[in-house]
Design a protein that fits this description.
By secondary structure, the chain is mainly α. Helix content is 78%, strand content 0%. The mean pLDDT is 79.
């Protein structure tokens, strides 16, 4: 990206009004492109700061190629982990209950 001082060094000598108008069009187009890039960056930043994205970054879970629901996968993993822990704690108690 050119800064203003380097732009001044490569600035062309404008001899006619047509050249001036063409240069104005180029500058307006460049400004519109830069504004569009800024808007896209803001949209991307706004999207990346949603609670869902922050959660996904923290857990390291990403969407699979076939389009499965990320939240559903995370919840099912959580349920499986909790069920496993519950089974570990309940197994000795159930064994003692049947042993009586």
């Amino acid at each position: 990206m050119l800064c203003f001082t380097s732009y001044l060094r490569i600035m062309k000598n404008i001899k006619t009004i047509k050249q001036l108008q063409a240069e104005k069009r180029l500058i307006a187009q460049r400004q519109a492109d830069l504004e569009k890039m800024i808007r896209l960056d803001w949209v991307e930043l706004k999207k990346s700061l949603t609670p869902q994205e922050l959660f996904l970054k923290k857990t390291g879970v990403r969407e699979e190629k076939n389009g499965k629901n990320i939240i559903g996968d995370v919840l099912s993993q959580l349920a499986a982990t909790l069920a496993g822990k519950l089974a570990e704690k309940a197994a000795p108690k159930i064994y003692r209950w049947f042993k009586k």
